[in-house]
Amino acid sequence: MTRSTIVELAKAAGVSPTTVSHAFSGRRYVDPETKARIVALADKMGYRANPRARRLRTGGAGIIALASSMPFAVAAGPARLGFLMEIAAAAAVTALSRHLALCLVPPLEPDSNLDALEVDGAIIVEPMVEDRLLEFFSARGVPVVSIGRAPGREDIPSVDIQSTATARLMLEHLGANSRRVGLITGEQRRNSYIETEAAYAAFAAERGYSPVALRVDESGGESEAAAAAERLLRNNPDIDALCVPVDAFARGVLDAARLLDRPVPQGLRLATRYDGMRAKLATPQLTAVNLHLDQVAEAAIDLLIAAMEGKEPQPHAIAPPQLVVRESSAA
């Protein structure tokens, strides 16, 4: 069966070929009833928008990148199904519905060559201060947005992942049945760490005790976190709960607790931020937070498209973070 052309579809719909193009690309407003009629006719006539032709008209590759400077030790997880991959899965579906292909940039080594990345736009997940990936794309004039604010880069559009609210959820839950709560975050300066540390300092002050917080180098992963948690707990035996936003670090804390004969949750209550496979497969299972990453990913794609087209982004309502209470923080 021969597919109908855009001219034939436009004639059948009583509109111009340009209107048909805009109905499928979303680049210009088309009346909803007109768009619905065009789509219904396209399905009936066997018309399919030609992405290759669209790329020739716009001069773009039709590809966007999703990347994170977090090392593999924390960005991935069991079967590589970690924080980055969950965002990627949701973002790929949304990108395809917007006629774009998503290129996932894997966690990079310091000497990785980025020159092969030819994309129309990029989403950086939780960039850190002077983030290499963010600077790479920005220097080449590629539109960039971030998931989580980029520290020191107010010019970069971002999707707020509500780190302060997430930290307060974990801290207040742990604090309800604990004498003293400690904190372990990442050494690299990402906005989620910065906001969490500020929330923890306020939380400790409200309860009248000095904060006990450590930062762990992300590249060390679980083993580095286990060693840091062991030192923290030996030096502060009154700590009976730990807020550990990085799920890889939280798994390391479980190892330290076993070594110190501080069973979780009887001797140490524990909560982490990301409700992924690490939290669900841990023994005991970890209390975590539903960050609604599907909504975050969709918002990031639309924010990037707006940046690529020089338009004002439309606001996206992302549901508040929800605590998922499991055995690791039982009273």
From TrEMBL:
Sample GO molecular function, one term: transcription cis-regulatory region binding
PROSITE patterns attached to this UniProt entry: HTH_CROC1, HTH_LACI_2
Occurrences of domain HTH lacI-type (ranges): 4-58
Pfam families assigned: LacI (PF00356), Peripla_BP_3 (PF13377)
Keyword Chloroplast appears in the UniProt entry: no
CDD domains named among the record's database cross-references: HTH_LacI (cd01392), PBP1_LacI-like (cd06287)
Domain HTH cro/C1-type: from-to ranges: 5-34
UniProt KW keywords: DNA-binding, Plasmid, Repressor, Transcription, Transcription regulation
Protein name as it appears in the record: Transcriptional regulator
